[in-house]
Input
Amino acid sequence: MRDKINAVFPCFTGICMEIYTNHTFWVDEYLEDINPQKPRGKSYVITEFDVLIEDQPFKIFNPNHKEVNFLAIDKGLFLDLKEHPARCDFAVFDDTRFCFVESKKSTLGQRSKERKDAIKQLKSTIQLFQKKVNFTGFQVEAQVSLRAKKIYPRQNSNRQNDAKEFEDEFNVTLYENNTIEF
Output
């Protein structure tokens, strides 16, 4: 899969794809422009993290220390240009599973809007990838990660309907979670 992606999507900001075998790692976004290879909003991997912080970034569990690939999509493969469509933040994948992730920081009053925006970005990214990359043999997933200091109830009929529509349209399972396990 790494070779397929590299063949059709150039990386605009240095390194966009990395392999990790850590038991646990997290993905966050740069909060400010550090340099041209680390622009504000580009996702990056954290291998050590203070778990006491309330607003935790997206967490990847890898108990068997498999090779898990991290792919920076927003501000990595795609820049903020008109010709680059709305896109999700990043993807993580191994040799059988590929997961697109859009992470949003939100409060209770913003959750619905942020969730809709995240789904729109995931759809746009998946459409683009499905046109250029063959996912045969992969379980493809999408995750909306709504980061908040307080966890709010997530399951209701609207969310279940959204997940069903997503599955029907893209053959991709949609989740709302802040973690994934490989």
